Amino acid sequence: MKEFLNVMAWPFFACLVLVGIHVYLGLHILTRVVIFVDLSIAQLAALGTTIGYLSGFAFDSFETYLFSLGFTLLGAIAFSLTRFRRQTIPQEAIVGIIYVVASSFMILLLDKAPHGAEHTKALLVGQILWTTGRDVLETALIYGIVGIVFFIFHSRFQTISESPELAREKGWSILFWDFLFYSLFGFIVTHSVRIAGVLLVFSFLIVPGVFSSLFSSQWRTRLFIGWGMGTFVSMLGVSISYIFDLPTGATVVTTFGFVLFLSGIIYAIVNRKFS
Given this model, what pLDDT does residue 150 score? Predict the structure, then answer.
């Protein structure tokens, strides 16, 4: 037990910090029905990191972080500008195009780079196993500050997510509030990708929100259910990773998938029985 705690305690605490704010952001993304915007922004962050690395900076340096953040802000601008009152082209299609192009471009850039395969893997599944106490505290502080901003403007963000027409009737600038939301979102994702990788970040954002929607339509209830599910899966995933000596990030992602799949089956059976 002592050895398990020595190895997995900080990765587990890192997962808890990620669960805290990502579940909240995921509920917004699900409500806005732009499911892959988080995956797209995470991929833009990974692309920025790649370009920073190929520009001569260390893979985990502050300079590559700035490259990563810059690309996510470009994504925030793009997603803000492509939301119209009358959507001739679904915004989700634009999000998907950005994701595919960013992914392909990153692969092209890393194809000839030294240790390109290793860096691609690190960007996808992260290095959460090597998280330190300092990483966790730094991440908690950053997310806490951004979380305060989301708390202050929660009413506006929620209204725009659920009923943009009502927001327009109130005279609010959808463009401004969308840009603020996606900029803060991008800032969070940029930091998260450095720790957890693209796939785990996407899982923390979407899976708990989907799971909670099976049981409630109330925002606050879904938030607490999502936090509970994320905490349980994180604990289960890091434990399986340790016991079977598997990559931690990929194990947690797979555990999210299995838990959601089993929950969906149970929900369908129970729903059919009582309907």
Answer: 94
Give the pLDDT band of residue 85 (cuts 50, 70, 90): low
- State how far the Cα of 255 lies from the Cα of 248, in Å rounded to an integer: 10
Closest CA to 68 of 83, 81, 57: 57
Q: Which domain holds residue 59?
A: 2-274
CATH label of the domain that carries residue 90: 1.10.3470.10
Closest CA to 40 of 174, 251, 212, 193: 193
C-alpha 13: how far from chain center: 17
- DSSP string for 95-142: HHHHHHHHHHHHHHHHHTSTTHHHHHHHHHH--GGG--HHHHHHHHHH
Radius of gyration of the chain, Cα coordinates, nearest whole angstrom? 19
Reduced to 3 states (helix: H, G, I; strand: E, B; else coil), residue 36 is coil
Q: Please tell me the distance from the alpha carbon of residue 271 to that of residue 275, in angstroms, as a whole number.
A: 6
Say how far apart CA 188 and CA 172 lie, in whole Å: 24
Say if residues 30 and 213 touch (Cβ distance below 8 Å): yes
Torsion angle, CA of 175/179/182/185, rounded to 10 degrees?
A: -140
Dist CA 164 CA 230 (whole Å):
29
Rounded Cα distance, 262 and 140, in Å: 31
Residue-wise pLDDT tens digits, 24-45: 999 999 988 787 888 898 889 9
Q: How confident is the model at residue 84 (pLDDT cuts 50, 70, 90)?
A: low
